[in-house]
Write a structure and sequence with these properties.
With about 700 residues, the chain is an all-alpha fold. The chain is about 70% helix and about 0% strand. Helix 9 packs antiparallel against helix 10 and helix 14 crosses helix 15. It is elongated, with a radius of gyration of 33 Å. The two termini are about 65 Å apart.
Length: about 700
């Protein structure tokens, strides 16, 4: 408050001084010059602290030339201060009142918009300044280039680059660094490299800008090559490379490089720790994360709120909630980011109640806080709680809607997911990558091909079709909707494939009976050097099931264990039981279940029961049904399957016993249903449904 009052008095003094000058027509230049010097010294001490400067409009028509010069000088200084404080509305108000604006005031206002506000406003002011006859200098050019970066306005950036060359400022190292940054952020990395190569003089910032640019555009190998060739590296260089690895999913490399930095005697800062802790979190490398925490303590930055929040996030993602909470409790200062990290940590680890309690204790909440709790409810299948919270939220952003869509899709509430997406479209918010990847599984599971195609077109219009995660989701959607060839076309158009891409197309062929084609794709994947994971092998075993390839299925199951060291999960055992069951090898299927090292669940016994129904094996079917009644006594499908086995053998008395058992336990058969996509709407029909399709259309 003392600082605020002091500054307020100073500004009032400026105003009183100018008011006195208005009473005089002739004022010598020397007092003005002297006062300008005093003002310059005074305002330089104000720039580093928040303030509310008081200014008054001075009519240029009623004051002398000296006062006009003086007010222009003071106004320019005030604009500069406001811009440095990020108060653009105040800066613009003063700027508009300056009677004679010079290049400094224009440059300050342009730079303020480019850095803190609207890139379009910055460019509009830049072009307006030039129309008034003022020529930009090197500082003006360096100030306007970030506006092009923010907007991704490559062509306008190139136009300004040409003007820089014509003005003779292209050899300025500060301008060169700004151009590298602009081109890199506009995803024109070749132009960024061209500027770098043509620079006569480079400093460390030049190298760091290009390293960050390569990393930002996904060229981590090129970034590391440049990093290695640097004549001298500083802390920023190491940070750029470590964070570049982390941002591009090269988490092992990020952690390794952090170790090299520490061994080289370069002291990490908060930015370094945040990047390497992100890598540890993504790797779930708890031990390595604890080692980094030890270095944090030795470096004396454990009290930094930014580092503390990163530690909380790391421990939470490594599923060590107790350690996360200990770090949170030990933090001397917490901000809203710290609280959000802890809430998200609880949510990610299935502790929705703790997340909610902590949320209620927060001294200050923001939208991220609400979204963290919302995500916790959705991820932990507490959809009714998520719905209530969603309705109570004071504001919602795209993340809020995406969390709900994802929650519905992950919990098999596909129609609710579609309904939520339609509501989202009415808000004016634009879906992003996460929204589409969350939504597409709903189309896939409903078989809503028409709507899926419309979303695919929207993805192309938004330029997101090259994203590998979105394309993988589209492949899965087309395959599950029965359009395997469309899925394969998409697969072939991808510039690169990851393990998810290969698994999606293999699974697509497998589930539609193209077992041999699926296995051929699996061989191709291995030839490309791609290592299969446990989900890929589910697809491979599924392909063997649908194609009746028993011997191949046995071979792949053994190879998975011995060659790839993948421990079989319930899904793999279920595939093998299904494989034997479809081939009529029921005794082998039964023995396989008995020899499982893990306890068979209802899905495994369900596969065996289904095979017994197909092959009329009453004894083994009764055994499987008995296990299912113990594991999942409320599931009507198991009773129906056993009843059908008895009916096929004409054992009507046993059929009656099963039906009586269902009545006594209050179990009702779930009616069969199907979906149909008509006129961009998905309709659900149940067995013996009295409603006709025309009833839906007429409504």
């Amino acid at each position: 408050m003392l600082f605020h009052n002091f500054r307020r008095i100073q500004c009032q003094n400026y105003y009183i001084f100018i008011q006195r000058y208005r009473c005089h027509a002739n004022i010598s230049a020397s007092p003005v010059t002297s006062f300008k010097t005093r003002v310059s010294r005074a305002t330089s001490s104000l720039q580093t602290r928040p303030q509310q400067l008081i200014h008054k409009r001075i009519s240029a028509d009623n004051i002398c030339r000296s006062v006009r010069i003086l007010y222009s000088f003071i106004g320019t200084k005030m604009v500069t201060v406001y811009v440095k404080l990020g108060s653009l509305s105040d800066a613009r108000h003063v700027f508009d009142e300056i009677p004679e604006r010079n290049l400094v005031s224009w440059t300050a206002m342009i730079g303020g918009y480019a850095r803190y506000g609207s890139g379009e406003e910055a460019l509009e002011l830049f072009y307006r300044m030039k129309r008034l006859g003022l020529k930009p200098n090197e500082i003006t050019f360096a100030s306007i280039l970030p506006a092009c970066s923010k907007l991704g306005a490559l062509e306008r950036g190139k136009d300004i680059h040409e003007e820089i060359v014509r003005s003779g400022f292209h050899s300025d190292v500060f301008i060169g660094n700004s151009l590298i940054d602009m081109y890199a952020k506009c995803r024109s990395i070749d132009d960024a490299r061209d500027v770098f190569d043509k620079m006569d003089n480079r400093n460390e910032a030049s190298w760091n800008s290009l390293i960050a640019g390569y990393s930002h555009n996904g060229f981590v190998e090129e970034a590391y090559e440049l990093f290695q060739s640097m004549p001298e590296r500083n802390e920023v260089s190491w940070n750029a490379m470590i964070s570049g690895y982390a941002q591009n999913g090269c988490f092992d490399e990020s952690v390794k490089l952090f170790g090299e930095m520490w061994q080289a005697g370069i002291k990490p800062n908060a930015v370094t720790f945040a990047s390497v802790l992100q890598a540890c979190a993504s790797l779930a490398a708890l031990i390595k994360g604890k080692e980094v925490q030890g270095i944090v303590i030795r470096s004396g930055v454990q009290s930094n709120v930014f580092v503390g929040s990163s530690l909380v996030d790391m421990y939470a993602k490594c599923r060590s909630v107790e350690d996360a909470h200990k770090v949170f409790d030990d933090m001397p200062i917490r901000n809203v980011v710290s609280w959000n990290a802890m809430i998200a940590g609880y949510a990610q680890n299935g502790c929705a109640d703790e997340a909610w309690k902590l949320f209620q204790q927060m001294p200050e909440r923001n939208l991220v806080s609400w979204n963290a709790v919302l995500s916790g409810f959705a991820q932990n299948q507490l959809l009714s709680d998520a719905e209530k919270l969603f309705q109570k939220m004071p504001e919602k952003d795209l993340v809020s809607w995406t969390v709900m869509i994802s929650g519905y899709a992950q919990n098999s509430c596909f129609q609710k997911a579609l309904k939520m997406f339609l509501q989202l479209q009415g808000t004016g918010l634009k879906p992003n990558l996460e929204t589409f990847t969350s939504l597409l599984p709903a189309f896939a599971n409903l078989g809503a091909l028409h709507q899926g195609k419309e979303v695919h077109e929207d993805i192309i219009r938004r330029g997101l079709h090259l994203n590998i995660a979105v394309t993988n989701a589209l492949i899965d959607m087309y395959a599950k909707c029965g359009c395997v060839w469309d899925a394969h076309k998409l697969f072939n158009k991808m510039p690169r494939h990851d393990i998810v891409s290969w698994t999606a197309i293999i699974m697509g062929y497998a589930t539609h009976g193209y077992g041999k084609e699926a296995l051929q794709l699996f061989d191709q994947m291995q030839n490309f050097g791609m290592k299969p994971d446990h989900i890929t092998f589910v697809g491979v075993l599924c392909a063997c099931c649908h194609a009746g390839l028993v011997d191949e299925g046995r071979k792949y199951f053994v190879s998975m264990i011995q060659d790839y060291h993948i421990r079989p999960s319930v899904e793999h055992y279920c595939c093998m039981v299904d494989l034997f069951g479809r081939a009529g090898l029921l005794d082998e299927a039964g023995d396989f279940i008995k020899n499982m090292p893990i306890k068979p669940d209802a899905v495994v016994w369900g596969c065996l029961l289904g095979a017994c129904r197909v092959h009329s094996n009453i004894g083994l079917g009764e055994y499987a049904a008995k296990r299912l009644f113990e594991l999942n006594p409320e599931n009507s499908s198991h009773y129906v399957a056993l009843s059908n086995i008895y009916a096929m053998a004409r054992r009507w008395e046993d059929v009656s016993k099963v039906r009586k058992m269902m009545r006594e336990r209050g179990i009702k058969k779930i009616p069969a249903c199907s979906w149909i996509d008509v006129s961009n709407k998905v309709y659900t029909f149940f067995k013996e449904d009295g409603l006709h399709l025309q009833d839906f259309i007429s409504n």
